[in-house]
């Protein structure tokens, strides 16, 4: 679905290139995708939104055009907006305010899911995330869309605001809603608040508040495991098998009910201490009776259901064994270390400190496939010396060739129309 005739022609050439089967199944249209979806309600089994930038303008029509139980796939490449570079722009497009923490890329995923859910709710529909991925320079989500006025009432239970300390980066989630059950009836009530005091109990600094975000699971773990098994059984069919397998493997090992994640390096930077290895830190969390896992978003990120006071107690115990230089008393790290740990951390190696993939030394994070990996220039933009230095001459030459071909096509079209006018 395109608004440019040249783009439709390119689609048609691509369809022919893929053979007779594609020609019998795939169509290209010169039309506004939003209007087309609105005029075909609940008609498509799968809708894939992959615009250059934000998909927000397409979401309202997309959630209406998917059949009940159908799949909506959505990509967003405006990561600077979603990750907190322009918070007010993010709020205007997605209805959520982002925070600039280490977890900002996962927060971007959850903001997009919350936005899709908001659009679906307007039509008594709701979403069930199947797979949510942040990689390279974009986020991409796969969700099922269902219709149910009663199930839609659970939406406030799946959304939360986020409080992030400006001093130590501790974060806490504030659910929007809650339920109270009595006999067979269920009442939906506002969530209890506040979950944090005015000042951080760990370092004494203020909080920034962001959201709302999707705080329910963002993957269907059974579906991910099934797809991973299918991919492995047909690995010769996928040129990008190693990359697909690495992402799905990491996702399959994530804790499903833990929104956002910690950065071990950030914790140590706050305390100005040497960093324990990930295995030692994982072991301490597990020995304290909590769960911990990695995340596909960041190779250094750690998801855990341990509360922040337990995390800081573990770090206090680590610093006792690995002393640090004295810092000014008003620094967040000094305030945290001034308190005695309530929990005595056990750093003995735990059996579950390594995931199955790590134990088998399966690759989970691969390097970019080429230099200057990232989104290419939007069509029609003027190329400057800055673009050449950032993207490289080969990439820029490719953009220039594409722009030249577009200009030639436009010029030929204008010349033909002028010839027709002259003849008449």
UniProtKB/TrEMBL annotation:
The keyword RNA-binding applies. The keyword Cell inner membrane does not apply. It holds the Pfam family TRM. InterPro entries: SAM-dependent_MTases_sf, Trm1, tRNA_met_Trm1_C. Residues 404-418 have a biased composition (Basic and acidic residues). Its EC number is 2.1.1.216. GO terms for molecular function: metal ion binding; tRNA (guanine(26)-N2)-dimethyltransferase activity; tRNA binding. This is tRNA (guanine(26)-N(2))-dimethyltransferase. One of its GO terms (cellular component) is nucleus. Gene3D superfamilies: N2,N2-dimethylguanosine tRNA methyltransferase, C-terminal domain, Vaccinia Virus protein VP39. One of its GO terms (biological process) is tRNA N2-guanine methylation. It is an enzyme of class 2 (transferase). Residues 402-424 are annotated as: Disordered. Dimethylates a single guanine residue at position 26 of most tRNAs using S-adenosyl-L-methionine as donor of the methyl groups. Keywords: Metal-binding, Methyltransferase, RNA-binding, S-adenosyl-L-methionine, Transferase, tRNA processing, tRNA-binding, Zinc. Belongs to the class I-like SAM-binding methyltransferase superfamily. Trm1 family. It catalyses: guanosine(26) in tRNA + 2 S-adenosyl-L-methionine = N(2)-dimethylguanosine(26) in tRNA + 2 S-adenosyl-L-homocysteine + 2 H(+).
């Amino acid at each position: 679905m395109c608004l440019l005739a040249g783009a439709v022609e390119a689609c048609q050439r691509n369809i022919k290139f893929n053979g007779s089967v594609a020609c019998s199944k795939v169509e290209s249209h010169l039309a506004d995708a939003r209007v087309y979806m609105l005029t075909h309600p609940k008609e498509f089994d799968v809708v894939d939104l992959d615009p250059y930038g934000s998909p927000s303008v397409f979401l309202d029509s997309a959630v209406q055009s998917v059949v009940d139980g159908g799949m909506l796939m959505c990509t967003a490449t405006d990561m600077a907006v979603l990750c907190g570079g322009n918070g007010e722009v993010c709020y205007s497009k997605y209805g959520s305010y982002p925070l600039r923490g280490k977890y900002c890329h996962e927060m971007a995923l959850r903001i997009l899911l919350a936005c899709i859910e908001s659009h679906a709710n307007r039509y008594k529909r709701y979403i069930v995330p199947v797979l949510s991925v942040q990689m390279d320079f974009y986020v991409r989500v796969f969700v099922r869309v269902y219709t149910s006025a009663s199930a839609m009432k659970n939406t406030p239970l799946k959304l939360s605001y986020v409080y992030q300390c400006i001093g130590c980066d501790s974060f806490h989630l504030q659910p929007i809603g809650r339920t109270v059950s009595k006999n067979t009836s269920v009442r939906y009530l506002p969530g209890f608040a506040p979950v944090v005091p005015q000042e951080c109990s760990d370092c004494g600094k203020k909080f920034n508040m962001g959201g709302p975000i999707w705080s329910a699971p963002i993957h269907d773990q059974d579906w991910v495991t099934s797809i991973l098994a299918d991919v492995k059984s047909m690995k010769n069919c996928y040129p990008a098998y190693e990359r697909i397998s690495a992402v799905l493997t990491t996702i399959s090992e994530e804790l499903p009910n833990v929104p956002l994640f910690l950065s071990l390096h950030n914790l140590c930077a706050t305390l100005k201490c040497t960093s324990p290895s990930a295995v030692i830190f994982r072991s301490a969390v597990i020995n304290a009776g909590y769960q911990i896992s990695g995340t596909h978003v960041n190779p250094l990120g750690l998801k855990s259901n341990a509360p922040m006071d337990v995390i800081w107690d573990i770090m206090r115990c680590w610093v006792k064994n690995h002393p640090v230089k004295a810092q000014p008393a008003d620094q967040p790290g000094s305030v945290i270390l001034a308190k005695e740990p309530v929990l005595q951390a056990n750093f003995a190696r735990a059996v579950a400190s390594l995931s199955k993939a790590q134990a088998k030394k399966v690759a989970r994070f691969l390097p970019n496939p080429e230099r200057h990996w990232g989104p290419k220039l939007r069509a029609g933009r003027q190329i400057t010396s800055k673009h050449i230095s950032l993207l490289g001459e080969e990439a820029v030459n490719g953009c220039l060739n594409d722009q030249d071909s577009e200009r030639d096509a436009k010029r030929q079209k204008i010349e033909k129309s002028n010839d027709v006018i002259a003849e008449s």
